[in-house]
Write a structure and sequence with these properties.
Bound molecules: 2-(butylsulfanyl)adenosine
Shape: globular
Length: 685
Amino acid sequence: MAQLSPEQRAAELRRELNFHNHRYYTLDDSVISDAEYDVLLRELRAIEAEHPGLLTADSPTQRVGGDPSPAFDEVEHSRPMLSLGNAFDFDELAAWHRRVSGLLDGADFQMVCELKIDGLAVNLTYENGVLSQGATRGNGITGEDVSRNLRTIRSIPLAVENAPSHLEVRGEVYLPVAEFRRLNEERAERGEQRYANPRNTGAGSIRQLDPKITASRNMQIWVYSLNSTEGVEFIESHWEALEWLTDLGFRINPKNRLCSSLGEVEDYYRYWLERRHDLPYEADGVVVKVSPLQMQDQLGVVGREPRWAVAYKFPAERATTRLLEIGINVGRTGSLNPYAILAPVVVSGATVQHASLHNEEDIHRKDIRVGDTVVIERAGDVIPQVVGPVTDMRTGTESVFRMPPNCPECGSDVLKTDEDAMHRCPNPACPAQFYELLKHFVSKGAADIDGLGERWCGILIKNNMVADVADLYRLKKERLLELDRMGDKLATRIIANIEASKTKPLPRLLFALGITHVGAEVADLLCQNFLGIAELAAATEEDLTAIDGIGPKIADSIIGWFGEPDNTALLEKLHVAGVKLTQDALPVATHSSTDIPFGGLTFVVTGTLAGFSRTEAEAQIKRLGGKVTSSVTKKTNYVVVGASPGSKVATAEKLGTPLLDEEAFLQLLESPPEALADEQQGSLV
Ligand code: IVH
């Protein structure tokens, strides 16, 4: 390829960076790692530094991020949300420190080390102590108003006491790794493609139009800076600001450290480099910040990066290796799951030999061939992923992968439909499927038969002791004791847990059955509508799809499962064994916004209340996850009415909106669940 001129290369880099910016910030679907992005950005910066005439106002080096999504209102940040310069090794960190020392005329300074959380930056504004707005970073100047979604995050205080009348804090919202795994398990359960990593999934969760989705994902925040100056004149350093914010009730990472020398910073970095995978969240480096605020001011900002802080990045967790073979694993629902068998390679401290490969379509889309040198990545998920091939390293001996026509375990003809990305073995008696089902049945959250781990499941099947899950209930301790390495203590425990599993709550039993698309959440939903398995078995497609959250795909799967004579026989066998297949009463539906009592409800407060000011009343509503608006519309759920209320009451009456007097409002605040159950009964006044 002919050498590009600096001008051409700069234009190419700008195009590429703009593309990746858009994917990262607007689509939450980045196709390259931060490290790869940084390499491109550095190259462009170097060209622009060498040829200042090539610098354009719209160069990605001159701005902070992507454009806000049109789905949310725009928010102008009171101060730009900055980026950070990077240091990729100790030499680069030391160079940053030297530069800072020089600018501070050799003065000593303390530094705060913080973990760099790989999540989504947000700005939270509190007016008179009440969370009035939460915004994303957007392009750094203008972000998106995601207040409704952020209010669902429990560790974001909706009100803070003793705060100045205007307070702004910034922090990183993230999806804990355990939550990410849970979500992915549920997606796999429903036959949906797994999410790639916690960062993108977390960012996507915040930018949902429906806050209930955010609420269901148990997101978290670490607040990392104070962004307003009013009423905080006594604070002299970043470290003091963090302490003050902790006292106000913000979630500040206890792993932050105040360091006095570069050596201490390096120790902190090395400590966390080793242990980063033990953290319940993803961290991609350490942020080092000059602590004294007066020094921060003196150092200032260049372009989009403050001089007083630097991101000391952990090395990227990618590696290349050879794809030796593609193996197939038959899942519980019969899906044929391809996986990569790799030449062993060390990625971030762990030797990787296997990586997941989703499905045939994905393998072809990424053009991954057997024999290829491939890039693999360890994201938050424990299972490493194959990112793609290194096509330059092809020798011509690589071969295109095809799914086998028969199940590798039982030889049945494999099924593939256009609606389903997965190839499936249709044989319910396939031994591989049964092994997966048995493991699922005994797992925590299902029948919870502790002691009967994966290995024992395999041994029971091999010894013909179980041919379906109901056979577990016929197991005798004596027979278990005949097994190699089975001790009396374990056998007793297993038998006791099998017995205890007979009376587990119905949703768990239903989940344990392993019906395709019936994960834990769907099982809960079904049990809120059917008293027992028999009632569910008799349900029609219409009955099922009438339930909010159950679509035709889930309904078809349920009806198909109950239509199988083998499954009917299994249920009868479970019943005879004494497994409880009913519940005494329908559980009271938990509110869909999971424990946010006022989630999804809109209130209007009018008139003068005796017990609290309007602001306090509104703060109480917001504390419980409700929304407060100023005018009564069809969307208003309650109007709280004080003395001398004005015309809003008449509007509410015309629309049939329930009115709450102060006493009823207090009652609702104190015992929201009961009060909300009365919602259908109209006015409480
Ligand atoms: S400080 C001027 N502290 O990293 C300071 N940022 O590359 C800018 N981040 O957009 C932010 N953890 O999303 C800071 N402890 C931390 C952080 C952190 C994660 C993110 C943040 C920011 C990006 C900068």
